[in-house]
Amino acid sequence: MFLPKCKRRLFALILAVAMSGPAHTLAQPAWTAKASDPVTLGWMQGSPPAPDRTIRFADGTYRSFPQWRWTVCHFQQLEPTIPVSRGLGPPRPLKRAERADIESLRFTPLGASEPMTFMEAFDRNFTDGLIILHEGRVVYERYAGCLSEQNRHAAMSVTKSLIGLLSEILIAEGTLDENRRVDSYVPELASSAFGDATIRQVLDMTTGLEFSENYNDPAADVWRHAMAGNPLPKPDDYSGPRTYYEYLTTVRRSGPHGAAFGYRTVNTDAMGWILSRVTGRPVSDLLAERLWSRIGADLEAYFTVDSIGTPFAGGGFNAGLRDLARVGQLLLDDGMIDGTRIVPEAAVNSIKRGGSKSAFAQAGYSQLSGWSYRSMWWVTHNKNGAFMARGVYGQSLYIDPTARTVIARFASHPEAGNAANDPTSLPLYQAITDFLMSSVQ
Amino acid sequence: MFLPKCKRRLFALILAVAMSGPAHTLAQPAWTAKASDPVTLGWMQGSPPAPDRTIRFADGTYRSFPQWRWTVCHFQQLEPTIPVSRGLGPPRPLKRAERADIESLRFTPLGASEPMTFMEAFDRNFTDGLIILHEGRVVYERYAGCLSEQNRHAAMSVTKSLIGLLSEILIAEGTLDENRRVDSYVPELASSAFGDATIRQVLDMTTGLEFSENYNDPAADVWRHAMAGNPLPKPDDYSGPRTYYEYLTTVRRSGPHGAAFGYRTVNTDAMGWILSRVTGRPVSDLLAERLWSRIGADLEAYFTVDSIGTPFAGGGFNAGLRDLARVGQLLLDDGMIDGTRIVPEAAVNSIKRGGSKSAFAQAGYSQLSGWSYRSMWWVTHNKNGAFMARGVYGQSLYIDPTARTVIARFASHPEAGNAANDPTSLPLYQAITDFLMSSVQ
């Protein structure tokens, strides 16, 4: 396809941005955490940074690996964003009871025969930050790469679980009816695939959507979605949707709703639209009002936005790791903080209960056998009743109610897809919770 | 000049961004604060906002008036920005001793024969927020337009004074020598007009620079500067500077250094480069380390950036009004907070002392007779020794050491240029300080 130079450039930009989608595989599997360390590599250091150490949004370099390990902490510097206020109160200090012996843990990765140490897994997963709370106290906290306790990291699809939690809060309060059709809340979606789906089907991603994530097909839906949300100017001859909302109106139906789980980011974008319409405010403000200003957050958070300022509900949230852990502790404590109810207990219970295992099984996640997906959360149905928020580069919020443990992790794995890091993550989380349940300090 | 469509669009964008310069006059002088209220007008409300209520960065609508009254609180949502951390400590509460009787003040505007009330001036100046501290306590605080105590406002050229303060701190500490030439710190500036200027000349803007701010001339330097700093992709045939730093290397000399005050934003950009080079970090980090994390700030702040993440030192800072007032109180208290020295006393004294009145007089500011400019601060040399930071849409940080008063104001006046709001601001500030000095609570 021939394009004039200025269009080629813009098209390249849009493709670059589109790479933020949830399931492609990057070309360099041979990187190590050490070799890709963004501080050692000196990205964006100096005034100005050296040309070969400069990362830009417009030319797509920010999506390359190992640049990506810098990018995950710097989306605000790369594109427009909308703040999520922490309010004006003091941060709520996290109690600490550090357990250095956690680092001596060993576990066997999925599909492996040899054990791996905790620290080997930390690096193998390209971990940028890991915090573990047990009984509400920090037993372990470690940062690497671009992250510290002072700055923020891209949560990617962990965003979805926060949108799901907000939705469950509104359902519990009676503001949102999970049995109502989407088009009764957002008439603009009436002729889209979402129109006749129920809120519950959208929340559980059992909608029947025609949505291709074939990254090798330039006409794939995942590219059109990314182009729509790209805040940069569109090429002159661009005739597709120009915002996340416009994109959603173009999603077509494929198959029945309610039959099978199908992980599609656009479900969360639709949920973001519904929440905004119901509450009269962007999801960034809703998240600030309901959670970020009430959990004693250390840091203001933010969402990336499209060209009209719409927060990217499907994956644009960026936050501090400790604050993500605070959300996990809030859910572990059934919605209470220091005796004050922040989230209705029914909202937490709805998530913990999980969704349909048979609907989930149809999606074919071989590493997640017996799991379900409920309100944008991944529910393990293991003996401890653990449930998770999961981001595509290894971001995790793992909540184990039985072990009274919260594990929050940010990571920047070179491979986009949890199948790449689950083998060295899920058994690690299990080993951590086993350890904390069994050991007496 | 004929340009292909895609280039015309990009050129229009760049022109739109360039309108952020310091001295042009907008076309609508007939607006009132009430008629232009951004909440009443409903900018960016709704999901999505109505087409005629949508404000975008790329099409330049954000620079139009009355849209501007929304924009001044939302730069983060419009373009990439770099955070200025407030640290992880609790905000330092501001003591309060409110004086509702301040609203009954009357004063006579410059050049007027009839008096005006405090509240008339509040609206006449398109005030978005006004806070007055007396003896370290809040005696008055009021918000309007897009601003509250929870969010941030563009400080525009108030930014310069913060860069000047950081510079004075480094001078007092011996890290920066005010008598050394610029090119001894930043060799890249050797062949520019800045090369043989001293740090002091840059700080006091007595450099001899060829820099046209004629907005009617498409080749004027002010346009080239804005184009260089615009974070959006450049047109394909663009051959000019692509970053703030690149722009600075192109500034040519006109006349001797040290002879006359000439208010040129690029001096502050050059100072930003020097500070970054000397400290090895962006001015956003330096400002966080030296001030924002130590004044008990309520809110994280931020700078707008160019395409390689350089903070716009000349005018890109955005912050909470209370935090701006905290900086004023810090200077009023000679660099101390609660018995802890935050800023060297010599740095504060250097600013308060003021610069050359004769150099200042040559710039011909008829409303500022007898003033001087020192380290990017405006010094009144009035009987109280008041000094100011000033932004082009009426942003003010007015510090009166004798009256023990700090006045911080954010505003979004339709006319870019302090000559438009000084007549209803400077005598108001004088009336406020007179009132607070004379009245016993």
Average pLDDT value of chain A?
92
Structural class by secondary-structure content of chain A = alpha+beta
The strands making up the biggest β-sheet of chain A line up spatially as 5-4-17-16-15-14-13
Shape, principal axes of CA atoms of chain A? globular
Please work out how many helical segments of chain A DSSP would assign. 16
Poorly predicted regions of chain A: 1-28
Largest interface: A-B, 54 and 54 residues
What would you report as the Rg of chain A, rounded to the nearest angstrom?
Answer: 21 Å
End-to-end distance of chain A:
65 Å
Helix content class of chain A: 25-40%
Largest sheet of chain A: 7 strands, antiparallel
- How large a portion of the residues of chain A is in β-strands, by DSSP E? 5-15%
How many strand segments of chain A? 17
Descriptive key words:
four-stranded antiparallel β-sheet, seven-stranded antiparallel β-sheet, homodimer, 441 residues, 14% strand, disordered N terminus, alpha+beta
Structure description:
The structure is a homodimer of 441-residue chains. Helix content of chain A is 31%, strand content 14%. Chain A has 16 helices and 17 strands. Chain A has helices at 5-18, 38-41, 68-71, 75-78, 118-124, 158-172, 182-185, 199-203, 221-229, 244-249, 265-279, 283-292, 321-332, 345-353, 357-361, 426-438, and strands spanning 81-84, 106-107, 116-117, 127-134, 137-143, 153-154, 209-210, 252-253, 301-304, 317-319, 336-337, 340-341, 372-374, 377-379, 387-390, 396-400, 405-411. In chain A, strand 2 (106-107) and strand 3 form a beta hairpin. In chain A, helix 1 (5-18) crosses helix 9 (221-229) and helix 6 (158-172) packs across helix 14 (345-353). The interface between A and B is large, with 54 and 54 residues.
